[in-house]
What does this fold into?
Amino acid sequence: MSYWMNGWRLTGLLTALLSLMVLGIVAADGFSVDAIRTAIRATARTSLLLFLPTFIASALVALWPGSKTRWLLRNRRYIGVGFAASHGLHAIVIIAFAIRDPALFSSMTSIGTLVSGGSAYLFILLMAATSFDRAVAWLGARNWRILHWCGAWYIALSFIITNAKRTPDMPLYWLPVVLVLLAIALRIAGWWRRRGKLRAASVPA
Ligand code: HEM
It folds into this structure.
C-alpha cells in the first residue's frame, strides 16, 4: 500500500478515486441536475479535505516533528496537485450544471462569484503548473514562494466565504469554517515556533 502513498503515484491514486466518485454520483442518478449538484458539493468537500493538510504541513512539522508529519510535508506537493484535480472536477461538474440548467445556475451564481471563484481557479492553475522541479527552477524560489503563499491564503479565504454564506440555511456549514480557522491558527503557531527557533539559533553563545 505504501507504494501508492508517495509521490506522483499518490496524486494519480487521488485523481482516479475522485473521478470514480464523480462518475458514480452522476451516473447513479442518470446524469440528472440533482446528481450533478451533488457532485459539485462532493468535490467542494474533497477539495477542502485535500487542501487543509497541504496548508498546514510545514506548521505541523514545526510543532510536532515526527514520521507522520514529515511524510505529509514530503508529499505536500503531490496532495496539493490532488487538490487541484479535485477542484478541476468541481469546475467540470459546474460547467455540466450550467449547460443542463442555465436558469438555475445563473440564479445561484453572480458576477461576483464568477470573478472571485475564477481568481481562485487562476491561482490553482498556476500553483499546479508550478509544482514541478523545472517550473520551480524557471520561476525562481522567491517568486515560487510568493505565488504559493498568496494562492494558499486566497484559497483558504475562499473556503471560509463559500461555506460561511451557506450557514444561514444550514448551521452545519460552520464545521468547515471552523476547520479552516483552526488550520490558520496552526499555521500561525507553526510560523511562530520556526521564528523562535531561528532567533535562538542566531543568538551568539
Ligand atoms: C467560478 C467558480 C465557481 C463556481 C461557478 C462555483 C459554483 C458552485 C455552485 C453552483 C455550488 C452549489 C452547488 C449546489 O448546492 O447545488 C458550489 C458549491 C460550493 N463551492 Fe463552488 N464554485 C466555484 C468555485 C469555487 C471555489 C474556488 C471554491 C473554494 C475554494 C468553492 C467552494 C465551494 C463550496 C465550499 C461549496 C459548497 C459545498 C457544500 O455544499 O458542501 N467553489 N459551487
Remarks:
- The pocket of protoporphyrin IX containing FE is lined by residues 37, 40-41, 44-45, 90, 94, 108-109, 113-114, 117-118, 120, 155, 158-159, 162-163 (CB under 6 Å).
